[in-house]
Specification:
The chain has a domain of 94 residues: Pdz3 Domain (Roll), CATH 2.30.42.10. 13% of the residues lie in helices and 36% in strands. The strands form five sheets. Strands 4-5-6-9-8-7 form a six-stranded antiparallel barrel. A hairpin with a 2-residue loop joins strand 20 and strand 21. The radius of gyration is 22 Å and the shape is globular.
Length: 388
C-alpha cells in the first residue's frame, strides 16, 4: 500500500505586510514613480516570451506606468502555477515503496511551455535527487506533467521545467530588470502558500537589495538577493515577485524565521540571475560556474587588526582545497586576494560575484598579499562542484 507524505517544500520568502500599510504606500506614491520603458529584450538563449498582456482596456506593462495590485493579479495570476513533485521513497518493514511529495510554486515564462521555479522544489532536501514526477496545476483547473529541463542547486536555486503547451492557453509573465530595483519599492507576490491556497496574492515592499544568502542545499551563496516583507509562506517557493509594472523582478526563494512562519524577512533570487541561468539550462541542460577552489572571508579593518593583516580589505583565504585551481597556482591559507584580473577585490563577495563572468578553463591573473609582500599568479579556473 502506498502512503503519500506531503512534505511542504523549503520555506519561500518574506514576511508580513498588512493591507493598510500597502494602501498607505499606494496613496503616498500615487502608484507612480516607477515609470519608464519596459524591461530589456530577453536573453537570446531564452525561448519566446510575451512582452505584454491585453487586459481589455490597455496593454499591461506596455504603458510604463504603475498598476494596482488588483490589475497585476487580474493580468498575471494565470501565469503562476502550483508544482507538485513526487519522489521515490524507500521501502521499510511496514510499508512498501513509500512516496514523498513536495509542493511549491512557479511561473510561465514562454508560450513554448517553459516554467521557472526553485531547484529545491523539484529535488529532495539533503540529497539533491530529482523528482521522478512533476505535475503542474494551472489556475484554470488544467493539469499537465512536466519534464525537468535542468537546475542549479549551487548559486541560484533555479530550476527550469517544461510542459507541452498544446491546449493549455499559456500566459507568460513579463521578466523585468532586477538591477533597477530600489529599496522601498512596492511589490506583489503570487503563489500557493502551504500548497492549499493556490493563486494567493500578498503585497509589501522591497526591504533591501544586494543581500547574500546561503543556498539551501550546497553551502554556496546566492548573491544580490532581494529582501522583501511581502507575506509569503511555505509552498510559495519558486513563485514570482512583481513590481508595480507587472514585471517579475525576483524568484521567491527562502525566509529567515524563528517560528517557522513568515516573519517579514524573506529573499528572492534576482530575475536577472534567474534569466541568465535559465538561458544556460535551456541551451546546455546545466549551469557551469568557474571556481578557484578556496574558502574564505571578507577582510575589513576589524578583521585586519584581529589577524594582524597588512591590508584592511580583500578576500582572505581560510582554506585552499586540495588539487583545486588555487592550490595548483600556489595560493595558500592566509593569503589575501586584492585583485582578479584588472578588478580590485574588497571582499569575498567580490570574488564570487566576479567569477560569474568567467567560465571553467579561463585563465586569470590573481594579485594577493602574503605577509608584507604583494604577489601575482596565473590561475586556470576549474568547474565548481555541485556541493562543498
Amino acid at each position: 500500500m502506498k502512503q503519500k507524505i506531503i512534505n511542504m517544500t523549503y520555506s519561500a520568502v518574506a514576511g508580513v505586510a498588512g493591507a493598510a500599510l500597502f494602501l498607505l504606500l499606494a496613496w503616498s506614491l500615487g502608484w507612480g514613480g516607477l515609470g519608464g520603458e519596459p524591461s530589456a529584450e530577453p536573453n537570446p538563449a531564452m525561448p519566446p516570451q510575451l512582452s505584454s498582456v491585453d487586459t481589455g482596456s490597455e496593454t499591461v506593462a506596455a504603458t510604463g506606468g504603475a498598476l494596482t495590485p488588483q490589475q497585476i493579479y487580474e493580468s498575471y495570476a494565470d501565469s503562476v502555477v502550483q508544482i507538485v513533485s513526487t519522489f521515490e521513497g524507500q521501502s521499510d518493514f511496514f510499508h512498501a515503496d513509500l512516496e514523498q511529495q513536495g509542493i511549491g510554486s512557479g511561473f510561465i515564462t514562454s508560450t513554448d511551455g517553459y516554467i521557472l521555479t526553485n531547484a529545491h522544489v523539484v529535488t529532495i532536501e539533503g540529497s539533491g535527487d530529482r523528482a521522478t514526477k512533476v505535475e503542474v496545476n494551472f489556475r484554470n483547473g488544467k493539469t499537465a506533467e512536466a519534464e525537468i529541463v535542468g537546475l542549479d542547486l549551487t548559486s541560484s536555486d533555479v530550476a527550469v521545467i517544461k510542459v507541452d503547451p498544446a491546449g493549455l492557453e499559456l500566459v507568460p509573465a513579463v521578466l523585468g530588470d532586477s538591477d533597477a530595483v530600489r529599496v522601498g519599492e512596492p511589490v506583489v507576490a503570487i503563489g500557493s502558500p502551504f500548497g492549499l491556497y493556490s493563486s494567493s496574492m500578498t503585497a509589501g515592499i522591497v526591504s533591501a537589495t544586494d543581500r547574500t544568502v546561503e543556498s539551501p542545499e550546497t553551502g554556496f551563496v546566492i548573491q544580490d538577493a532581494i529582501q522583501t516583507d511581502a507575506a509569503i509562506n511555505r509552498g510559495n517557493s519558486g513563485g514570482p515577485l512583481f513590481n508595480l509594472r507587472g514585471e517579475v523582478i525576483g524568484l521567491n526563494e527562502q525566509i529567515i524565521s524563528v517560528s517557522g512562519g513568515s516573519e517579514g524577512v524573506g529573499f528572492a533570487v534576482p530575475i536577472n540571475t534567474a534569466r541568465r541561468v535559465m538561458g544556460q539550462i535551456i541551451e546546455k541542460g546545466e549551469v557551469e560556474y568557474a571556481w578557484m577552489g578556496v574558502i574564505g572571508q571578507s577582510v575589513d579593518a576589524d578583521t585586519a587588526g584581529e589577524l594582524e593583516l597588512t591590508v584592511d580589505k580583500g578576500a582572505l583565504i581560510n582554506e585552499v582545497l586540495a588539487d583545486g585551481p588555487a592550490s595548483k597556482a600556489g595560493l595558500e591559507s592566509g593569503d589575501v586576494i586584492v585583485k582578479v584580473g584588472d578588478r580590485d577585490i574588497g571582499s569575498m563577495e567580490d570574488v564570487t560575484g566576479l567569477l560569474v563572468e568567467y567560465r571553467p578553463g579561463d585563465k586569470v591573473k590573481v594579485t594577493y598579499v602574503r605577509g608584507d609582500e604583494t604577489k601575482e599568479t596565473e590561475l586556470e579556473l576549474g568547474k565548481r562542484p555541485e556541493r562543498l
